[in-house]
Amino acid sequence: MPHAGTGRRAALILGAGALAAPALAQGTNPGKFPDRPIRLIVPWPPGGSADAQLRSLAELAAKTLGQPVLVENRPGASGTLGAQFLTTQAKPDGYTLGQMHMSIVRRPFIVRTPPWDPVNDFTHVIGLCGWMYGIVVKADGPIRSWADYLAHARANPGRLTYATSGIATTNHLAMEEIAARERIDIVHVPYRASNEAAVAVTAGEVMSVADSSSWGPLVESGALRLICVWTAERSPRFPEAPTLRELGYDMVITSPYGISGPKGMDPGVTRALHDAFHAALMDPANTAVRAQFDMPLEYYPTAEYRQFIARRAEYEQGMARKLNLRID
């Protein structure tokens, strides 16, 4: 999966300040944007990690923009209702934005009639952060390490089950890729949410869960055992768990998301929004929210974020063909 190196990302972060000075000089009047509240569509119910991070971001960005950034929750359709609104109803004036995440990038390649082009039908403003994924098993079960996991799968083909929060999610595709590399036969059991999947492991309904860190409290309580994480580096919260890279896979899986708007936004407006959201992202208050939910920084400035989306779209299209993924 495409992933910018730590050094490169640090350079991008440091370099963002150099972009700020001419931000409003290109194509917009700094005295006129914004002159009213901005709407930020979060395509999930209130209370989750993305909702919390984006609400914090909106509150902080409003201080720079001088106008409120109002979060509007539009859950449903696997988190794609915001993208649907951006591509069919929103004006490209910078006053309506939405979370851009991997399900939006992936959807055109797993449905019969693609609803949008994930690269060209949006104005991609900024890449923000991702999630810490990992694989957990029951703490008192026979699997105590990644080596045990593979050995159990090979000894019991078609019997080792793993749960995720849904079909064709980032973590589902990652597990399919790992299984193909290792030539193991493991069974996917989708749940409605990652916290439900984690509880299912403790109840013995499934043997493992591969998902974001909603399993964290159950690992800390001793009910579950974390056998690997998918971030670039080990988790400060769970330092004993090796990364996939340490286990021999050149894979970093964090499902990064960002903010995008409708196609055709003015470059100066886009720059003003980028700079306000970048300042908010680096604010200690937002850093604390990301730490609370184990959300690694995945910052991309505007041009690089569009390039990332293009690379990711190519990957998603290839995986959809390889796995013959269809949801309609």
Automatic annotation (TrEMBL):
<keyword id="KW-0732">Signal</keyword>
<comment type="similarity">
    <text>Belongs to the UPF0065 (bug) family.</text>
</comment>
<protein>
    <submittedName>
        <fullName>Tripartite tricarboxylate transporter substrate binding protein</fullName>
    </submittedName>
</protein>
<dbReference type="InterPro" id="IPR005064">
    <property type="entry name" value="BUG"/>
</dbReference>
<feature type="signal peptide">
    <location>
        <begin position="1"/>
        <end position="25"/>
    </location>
</feature>
<dbReference type="Pfam" id="PF03401">
    <property type="entry name" value="TctC"/>
</dbReference>
<dbReference type="InterPro" id="IPR042100">
    <property type="entry name" value="Bug_dom1"/>
</dbReference>
